[in-house]
């Protein structure tokens, strides 16, 4: 659903650019809280989840290369908003998808540069907000089980895709450059993206289910599902000599301060990270060669209804990686695979850099507030 340059006029593109900039700024602040966690339990989970945020962006980039057929002559691909929001949180999810869209537009000439605000608004903000809102609502009414998280992920991802199609139709109604009946655009966009949503839902549910089966504490949307630890007195300890038997004491909640992460836990997180990276590299570097070559939902609708009449050439069309191939490498399998691996590496580096900086800034701010509250001068960081 990457919108190219020329589909939406300059005023609406500029307005969505402002919306995207504000949303990214708000998400930067929100992501600091998500990556730091809320309370001792959340903080412990965030320590393990924060390093995975960059990997989530790289994984979304890789899976977006895997276009799957949905109808005659039409394909679809993952949007990723639901997956990112459920795995690492809605604010961090907006940033993950935004990083992916930036890398695709700058390096691979996929999605217009003047339309970057349109794409972030549609593919990062709308999908994440709609998906996470539905997900939280479903988790509250479904039984508190891990399977409920997977089911809620499926439904949220399924509906987030046609929601993005509706959002595009609204933007096109405001600033479409071709004279096309709005009813035809709405019907075609929502119809094909309902089918694409099924693929999105399957990928999202499978991924969330795989992570939650191994390390549920790494899934942001699953936090709070585990029962709190309770301390009980030993039933083997009898009463003192001459004392009457005491009534069994009530369970006492364990101390809230989390213990430092053990070596096995750190090793487990490392294995999850390596497995995710390996999956992203395999998808982008190998499986992408077999992806459907049919136009995706927006491209097909644009071709069939004339939306692309005023499409403009991409400003980065001469990029060495344009169209997900490496310039001057004639073998298509090698060219596409190498471009995919480069894209995964670049997205991982940029995404990880952003989230590491956010995590450190949040930690530094928390330390300064603690020093101030204790009456000690804060140290510069």
Report the uncertain regions: 227-231, 254-261
Percentage beta strand? under 5%
Radius of gyration, whole Å: 24 Å
Could you spell the SSE succession in H and E letters? HHHEEHHHHHEEHHH
Number of helices: 11
The chain-level mean pLDDT equals: 86
Number of extended strands: 4
Task: Please provide a written account of the structure.
The protein is mainly alpha-helical. The chain contains 11 helices and 4 strands, in the order H-H-H-E-E-H-H-H-H-H-E-E-H-H-H. Strands 1-2 form a two-stranded antiparallel sheet. Strands 3-4 form a two-stranded antiparallel ribbon. A hairpin with a 2-residue loop joins strand 1 and strand 2. Helix 3 packs antiparallel against helix 4. The longest helix is centred in the C-terminal third of the chain and has 42 residues. The radius of gyration is 24 Å and the shape is globular. The chain starts with 9 loop residues before the first helix and ends in an 8-residue tail after the last helix. About 3% of the residues have low confidence.
């Amino acid at each position: 659903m990457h919108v190219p340059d020329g589909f939406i006029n300059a005023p609406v593109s500029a307005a969505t650019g402002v919306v995207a900039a504000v949303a990214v700024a708000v998400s930067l602040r929100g992501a600091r809280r998500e990556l730091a966690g809320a309370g001792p339990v959340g903080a412990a989970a965030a320590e393990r989840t924060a390093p995975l945020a960059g990997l989530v962006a790289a994984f979304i980039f890789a899976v977006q290369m895997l276009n799957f057929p949905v109808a005659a002559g039409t394909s679809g691909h993952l949007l990723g908003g639901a997956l990112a929001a459920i795995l690492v949180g809605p604010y961090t999810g907006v940033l993950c998808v935004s990083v992916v869209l930036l890398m695709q537009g700058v390096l691979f000439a996929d999605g217009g540069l003047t339309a970057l605000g349109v794409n972030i608004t549609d593919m990062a903000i709308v999908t994440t907000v709609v998906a996470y809102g539905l997900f939280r609502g479903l988790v509250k009414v479904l039984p508190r089980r891990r399977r409920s998280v997977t089911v809620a992920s499926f439904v949220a991802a399924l509906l987030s895709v046609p929601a993005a199609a509706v959002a595009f139709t609204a933007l096109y109604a405001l600033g479409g450059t071709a004279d096309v009946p709005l009813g035809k655009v709405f019907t075609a966009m929502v119809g094909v993206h309902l089918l694409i949503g099924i693929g999105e839902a399957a990928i999202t549910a499978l991924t969330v289910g795989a992570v939650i089966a191994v390390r549920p504490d790494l899934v942001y949307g699953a936090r709070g599902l585990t029962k709190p630890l309770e301390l009980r007195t030993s039933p083997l300890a009898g009463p003192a000599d001459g004392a009457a038997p005491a009534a069994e004491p009530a369970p006492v909640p364990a101390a809230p301060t989390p213990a430092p992460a053990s070596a096995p836990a750190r090793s487990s997180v490392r294995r999850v990270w390596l497995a995710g990276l390996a999956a992203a590299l395999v998808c982008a570097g190998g499986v992408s060669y077999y992806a459907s070559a049919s136009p995706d939902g927006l491209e097909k609708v644009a071709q069939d209804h004339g939306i692309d009449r005023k499409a403009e050439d991409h400003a980065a069309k001469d990029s060495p990686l344009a169209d997900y191939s490496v310039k001057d490498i004639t073998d298509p399998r090698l060219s596409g695979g190498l471009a995919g691996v480069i894209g995964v590496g670049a997205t991982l580096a940029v995404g990880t850099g952003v989230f590491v900086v956010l995590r450190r800034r949040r930690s530094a701010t928390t330390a300064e507030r603690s020093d101030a509250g204790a009456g000690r001068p804060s140290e510069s960081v």
